[in-house]
Design brief:
Elements lengths: L18 H11 L2 H14 L3 E3 L9 H14 L4 H9 L4 H14 L7 H5 L4 H13 L8 H9 L6 H11 L12 H6 L7 H11 L12 H6 L9 H10 L1 H5 L3 H8 L3 H14 L20 E5 L5 E5 L7 E3 L1 H9 L3 H38 L1 H6 L9 H8 L3 H8 L3 E4 L2 E4 L7 E3 L6 E3 H14 L8 H10 L6 H10 L5 H4 L3
Parallel strand pairs: 2-5
Antiparallel strand pairs: 1-4, 2-3, 5-6, 7-8
Helix pairs in contact: 1-18, 1-21, 5-17, 8-9, 9-11, 13-16, 17-18, 18-20, 18-21, 20-21, 23-24
Length: 498
């Protein structure tokens, strides 16, 4: 085998993202609350980073540096270390001189000009923020906590108590068993007879709220039927033997099999709707409630124009500590000098990334609002089809930048609080082929058609296609079916009234 060694030169293009660009994209994508957490974390780890109004006293800068070094050392791969490695081939001395010049050229307004212009609104937004926080109720007990508290009042054997706790922890968010009782008894870990397991379950089924501990939806409803419930026997018969027929609105079938009149069956159904809950566990807290804070506020001026304003007052306005810049100017050992340089540079990058986030988010939000003024003026029926690429073209950024800017961001408008993504969506053309219509409008029109139908003879999906066509919306049957289901509208048979 002949081996040939030679040197060759090849040109290729590679795209590498600088650390600053990566950080800017990460900051842009963060919603307001997560950005607050990120700033808090950075201020905790970087002694050179201060809030605008922090007073720089006679703190021990050397000790602060040592503490910051210790925190950095405890991190497996410090971010600043990665950044330094990427940039270590650059002109570090030039960077050092530039950092020293900050002391002379630093303008307190450099990163806060817009926030100062809106300082008159700080009180207003601060009060709104406090109102939002005050509206958050104290944590209520979960379903499991609520049931365990009740179950522990029973005077039962330790074995029963342990199995009862085990069953309660195996209830789903509706309050029903996630597996069959024999299966749960088998994997319990301790021997328990089927009879004992059933008796423990029956104790749980006596707890509040009624219906918990059921093995299926029928049992859940039957556990809630009381002796004094109107039409009790009719209700029990329907739940026990004709539940599927009721769910499918086959009332004539129930009439034929039971002898109950249609009117009596409808009355029993109304009693069930009023007094029985198929999901008794859902009234309890199962997941933490996430507070939504708007990133953008919308203001309307007298001439009808809309202008966006960022919710920045809840964020600390950041600056770099002059004490550490002075430390570099006055001299320090090489290790400390390099550490402080990196921390100051990191702080500057963060400040600039936040300001870039504010600028991009404001421009994107304004472009969206400019395209959706009809929605804001007249309501959801007038929303226009809008794609992110259209906004990217207006703002002059890549479409992925728009995607990051609107991700998990909310805007407070005169019509309510909306996610920015709410304003995007495809559409269809009217039958004349001229006007684009947003899918949201199509869904609204479909809902209107169904609301106006004759409930004694509801429209099939094919009939809905024809009715929508009369309104100028040419849709396939599968499209009508898809949006009917998205709107949680039952089929024509289930919508029929008897």
């Amino acid at each position: 085998m002949h081996m040939n060694f030679s040197q060759q030169m090849r040109m290729s293009q590679q795209m590498k993202l600088a650390p600053r660009m990566i950080q800017s994209m990460e900051i842009l994508q963060l919603p307001l609350m997560e950005l607050q957490e990120r700033i808090d974390q950075e201020m905790d780890e970087n002694p050179t980073l201060l809030a605008e109004h922090d007073v720089e006293g006679e703190s021990d800068t050397e000790r602060n540096i040592e503490l910051a070094k210790a925190k950095e050392a405890a991190t497996e791969t410090p971010v600043e270390a990665r950044e330094l490695k990427v940039d270590e081939n650059g002109n570090n001395e030039a960077d050092f001189e530039r950092l020293l010049e900050m002391h002379e050229n630093w303008n307190d307004d450099s990163f806060n000009s817009e926030s100062r212009q809106s300082s008159g609104r700080i009180s207003e937004d601060g009060e709104r923020h406090l109102d939002q926080m005050a509206s958050i109720q104290e944590d209520e007990p979960t379903l499991i906590e609520h049931l365990l508290q009740q179950f522990h009042f029973y005077d039962v054997s330790p074995a029963w108590r342990e199995f009862g706790d085990y069953l309660i922890h195996n209830l789903d968010h509706d309050g029903r068993l996630q597996s069959s009782l024999p299966e749960l008894a088998q994997v319990f870990g301790h021997q328990i007879t089927n009879d004992d397991a059933l008796q423990v379950l029956q104790l749980i089924q006596k707890l509040e709220p009624p219906g918990v501990g059921a093995r299926d939806v029928r049992e859940c409803l039957l556990l809630q039927v009381t002796d004094d419930m109107p039409l009790r026997d009719v209700v029990i018969t329907i739940i026990t033997s004709h539940f599927e027929d009721l769910a499918e609105n086959r009332l004539p079938v129930i009439e034929r099999k039971t002898g109950y009149s249609i009117e009596m069956i409808k009355m029993a159904r109304e009693e069930m709707r009023e007094h029985l809950d198929p999901h008794p566990g859902r009234r309890f807290r199962n997941v933490p409630v996430q507070t939504v804070m708007p990133d953008v506020f919308l203001e309307q001026y007298d001439h009808g124009k809309y202008a966006v304003r960022l919710s920045k007052e809840t964020l600390p306005q950041l600056r770099i500590s002059r004490k550490y810049i002075d430390m570099l100017r006055n001299g320090c050992d090489a290790t400390t000098k390099e550490f402080v340089k990196r921390k100051i540079e990191s702080a500057k990058w963060l400040i600039e990334s936040i300001e870039q986030r504010h600028n991009t988010l404001k421009r994107v939000a304004q472009a969206i609002v400019d395209r959706q003024t009809d929605f804001l003026d007249k309501g959801p029926e007038f929303i226009s089809p809008l794609k992110m690429q259209q906004i990217a073209d207006v703002v002059g950024v890549h479409v992925t930048t728009v995607s990051r800017a609107v991700d998990d961001k909310w805007i407070q408008t005169p019509r309510g609080l909306f996610p920015l993504k709410r304003f995007f969506g495809g559409g269809t053309k009217t039958d004349d082929g001229e006007d684009d219509v947003a899918w949201a409008v199509v869904r609204i029109k479909l809902q209107e058609v169904i609301d106006k139908e004759d409930k004694d003879d509801p429209l099939s999906d094919d009939a809905l296609v024809e009715e929508m066509k009369k309104l100028g919306y040419v849709l396939a049957r599968r499209t009508v079916t898809k949006y009917r289901k998205k709107l949680n509208i039952p089929s024509s048979r289930q919508r029929r009234q008897y």
